[in-house]
Amino acid sequence: MDLSYLGWSGCFAEAFSSLNDPRLVPARVASEDRHSYFVVAAAGEFTATVAGRLLHRTPSPTALPKVGDWVAVQCLPGEEKAIIQHVLPRKTWLGRRQTGRANEQQVLVANVDTAFVVQALDATFKVRRLERFLVMAREGGIRPIVVLNKADLGADLDHLTAEAHAAAGEALVVVTSAKTRLGIKALAAMIRPAETVVFVGTSGVGKSSLINRLCGEEIQPTLEVRESDSKGRHATTWRELIPLPDGGLVIDTPGMREFHLWLADEGVDDTFPEVVALATGCRFRDCQHEREPGCAVRAAVESGALTRVRHDAFLKLQRELSYLGQQRREHTYLARKREGKVAQRALERFYRDSAGSD
Band of the pLDDT at 319, cuts 50, 70, 90? Predict the structure, then answer.
């Protein structure tokens, strides 16, 4: 297989060549199942596991292979099995704060060019949630495109589309219906050969149905949404790299029941460009745009140049980021304190042992 079809490029080739190990070949992670992986290399497809040495020297689970990663593997002779020895540096990533944990990042997928942020045009549509997904994509260096699916449900398209455009900033917005095929051609045209795209959104917005339309067949399983509350049921319980007929690749992700930001300063700036532009006129460089005198952002809200809804959404995200940053600093301080105590105890043991040997 020609690896360029899978998105292999010069930056990955350079990183791989620096390993200088003739036993290894490059491969891309197509799926993940607990501690087992399915990877695709030039020689074919392999079931792979992570080498023990890589597991032990990896400082965080974040650095272990994820779907979309390029890895250096050692193929076992005569078997369709391989050992992952290295994870090549990521070009982009999509991540979130791990559910239930204060300060740990969870990388969902890696080396993605475009994130299709899907919202359904029904009772589940929430512009604040859309803003958070946009921040997450931009923070990982991924180009976001907003997809408003289920246009066939007869919602107030003009109103919801206007809200999405306001939240999207410079990101494109496309209206689709997986049921009637509305917008599917436009969606397909946004995926270039050898590029990787990912569909993200909560359960029930129609990510898998859209992927099935793009593939031309039922690749991903789908489940109906409950009529009582428009809540979706998880149809996708894994992340899988899927080749498209026109040469691109797509990753479907499980719906995210719980979503947290992860230190997304640059992503917030890209999601709220009008606030960033106004902030250059503030009297203080560290203005928080709440109660400070001479705040150009608050002045714009009072004059009607900036809506109060957008201002409130920006402040809420900033507070969440500030909270996460504080947690990170406390986590780092406690970790260093523990390391210091361990080092002190080791030094005391050393002196005791030295004194005893004398």
Answer: confident
